[in-house]
Amino acid sequence: MEPFVIPFSQPEHDDLRKRLRNTRWPDQVQNAGWKYGTELSYLKQLCDYWIDVFDWKKQLEYLNSFHHYHVAIDNCTIHFIYERSTESDATPIVISHGWPSSFAEMLKIIPMLTDPARFGGTPEDAFDVIVPSLPGFAFSTPRPRGHMRAHELWAKLMTTVLGYDSFIAQGTDVGAGVTSLLGYFFPKLVKGIHISSVDLLWPVPMPAESEMTANENRYLASFEKWDEDENGYGHIQRTKPQTLAYGLNDSPMGLAAWIVEKFRSWSDCNGNIESRFTKDELLTNIMIYWTTQAINSSMRHYYDHSHNINLPQRKQGDKIKVPTGVAMFPGEKDLIVPREFAERSYNIQRWTDMPSGGHFAAMEEPELLVNDIREFARSLR
Question: How far apart are CA 60 and CA 275, in angstroms?
Fold first, then answer.
């Protein structure tokens, strides 16, 4: 493993600003707001800020204030942040992000976890925190083809590379799936898993409608409605991601429109995206995709997963047996999972219905999330 510093490129930055200034804007239906997708007036404001105010060098200073590393595992180069606690008996925890997020989503919670005494905890609550970038995201190279199988990479990262005998795993969105598979395939290494999103694995096989509770059937109906109304991005990314990638990889405005709409739709912002995220936070995440040209490889995961390319297989009827904690945030709206449905697939030991926050919990409600992780970890001691 080698230390890594996120670089700054002046020619790349000049090219970005030129592209933004030369944007050819589409029209928009009058008074449509966000109904058709990302609102034109807001995106223009964001891009103007990107050109005239946003300081990428300053954001890089913040990003590089954390300890970054590169390591080669199974023919992949994996980027990760590794922040060790000053407490010698700190619990190791690997935290996995999702799409269209990045490792930057977790930066607020890292110091809270490594130095709990500064943030309302006790020394016993301390963690060594490892935040990898998923294969094909940011500074991690993608698998040549097929499911990213990040759970296998993370197991080797935590044990062979970093030398831990056991650890806790935490995740959201795609990272929730990685975390779940870590618990399923590596129960001797993983002491427990904590999930902070609705992206839980479903039972295999699915029970009949008559065998499920009214809450479970309502959840499946609301999921079906969400799939129809909100999952257009997913249908494209799991069918023709390459076609989409040409526009997003070439146009920073297009990339911003694609990503920002999800931060608004999936967060607990009541339609006001900047009540949850600053422009700097939004653009820093977008810049991680732009500078690494990772949007195509990040979307390709959806195709490979839906086409069952090298997909890890669970046995029929098997549950994830390691202790599981779930934090369910209300901003997830129609996708909120009933506990009894989750219990068909997980050994649920802690379940928290949060008062606020959404899909990007580590950015929206870092204190709530950290407190829940702490409480869950305490139960494993």
Answer: 23
Q: What CATH number should be reported for the domain holding residue 313?
A: 3.40.50.1820
Q: Containing domain of residue 170, as a range?
A: 2-19+37-379
For the chain, helix (H) and strand (E) counts, in that order, are 15, 9
The tokens describing 175, both together, are 């990272």
E strands within 261-335? 320-328
CB-CB contact of 179 with 96 (8 Å): yes
Q: Model confidence at 138, in pLDDT bands (50, 70, 90)?
A: very high
Tokens of 13: 């930055």
User: Within 10 A of 251 (CB to CB), how many other CB atoms are there?
Assistant: 18
Assigned domain for 26 exists:
no
Domain-located, residue 31: no
> Is 32 contained in some domain?
no
Return the structure tokens found at 25: 């804007």
**pLDDT tens digits, 43-62:** 999 999 999 999 999 999 99
The predicted pLDDT at position 143 comes to 85
Q: Classify residue 359: in a domain, yes or no.
A: yes
Q: For the chain, what is the domain count?
A: 1
In Å, how far from its chain's centre is CA 350? 21
Catalytically active residues, by annotation: 173, 302, 359
Q: How far is the C-alpha of 148 from the C-alpha of 309, rounded, in Å? A: 10
Cβ-proximal residues to 60 (8 Å cutoff; 6+ apart), any chain: 6, 8
